[in-house]
Specification:
The protein is of the alpha/beta class and 368 residues long. It has two domains: 165 residues, NAD(P)-binding Rossmann-like Domain (Rossmann fold), CATH 3.40.50; 184 residues, 2-Layer Sandwich (Dihydrodipicolinate Reductase, domain 2), CATH 3.30.360. The protein has twelve helices and 18 strands. The strands form four sheets. Strands 3-2-1-4-5-6-17 form a seven-stranded parallel β-sheet, with helices on both faces. Helix 1 packs across helix 11.
Amino acid sequence: MGKIIVLGAGLVGGVMAKDLAKDHEVTSVDISQKNLDKLNGIKTICTDISDKSNLQNLIQDFDLVVGAVPGFMGYQMMQNVIEAEKNIVDISFYPEDPFGLDELAKQKGVIAIMDCGVAPGMGNIIFGYHDKQMKISDYECLVGGLPEKREWPYEYQAVFSPIDVIEEYVRPARFVKNSKLITKEALSDTEIIDFEEIGPLESWNSDGLRSLIHTMPHIPNMIEKTLRYPGCVEYLKVLRESGFFSYDKIEVNGQMIRPIDVTSKLLFPKWEMKEGDKDFTIMRIIIQGIEANKNVIYQYNLLDRFQNGTISMARTTGFTCTAVANLVLNGDYTRIGISPPEYLGEHYTFVRDYLAERGVHYNVKKTR
């Protein structure tokens, strides 16, 4: 049993705290008492962890920190934890380069695992596992979290910070083609793809490869695309091009405001999951290459639905993170420095089985 502090008690952070509390002593921290009130039986602290000294004092007696804060806080939070010489497993989807903290983590002797969710996260672990087994030529990941009920106008609900979701619509998308890094605007190269049990979904370029661009330079073709219900890309482009997602301040009645802040305030009530709402997570990974001198294709399919009162995106993201947290606590993962999840490829079987025990199943098919 270890002592774990979970930073953030939102829809995903709360699920992780409950899962870890089955085997460990857990404390959950959030600035929202409303979020903490949902965590019956778990020790909670309501405080602001954006304050460096407050955070570092808070975590000093714990064996492991688990990060589940909004992306805009993620990098600074991780830096503050590393400076305090505490191991961390994190799901924050922050825009900064995580390897900027690698030297610091090595100096402090800290294990710091980032992007440890579903995608990035489990997709990277699968990728890392096969990279050790075969010579990969192509990696494609299609992923999305969607509400089961399609409601006008957005047909979407957010389980993360709304600003983090909007970031996917504006951050330039990078992918690798014929060993060359290509950058396109987000929401580009739209395709309609039909999925069994779900039907047609719209895929588009998003910046989901992240660390893989640097850690897998030997793979000639890599891409990740986000999935939404058909029709969403057009209105998102209209909002983006009209400036609603801009971080640049504008003057309104004598006040300087960021359009992104207004947009978030307006959209969050529309995107918020209400009592009784259900979601699903869908992911398809295709890995092609040569294994034992033969051309092979591995296809991984995930279709996970809301169950046991827990939203799917929290299950698929959160349980990947808690599986890895257990690897660190048990001493099974000991690499010092910044670790993107593809470094955990050798632990794929453990993570897969941990997820399966909680009803999250990855179905794999191999063809030649």
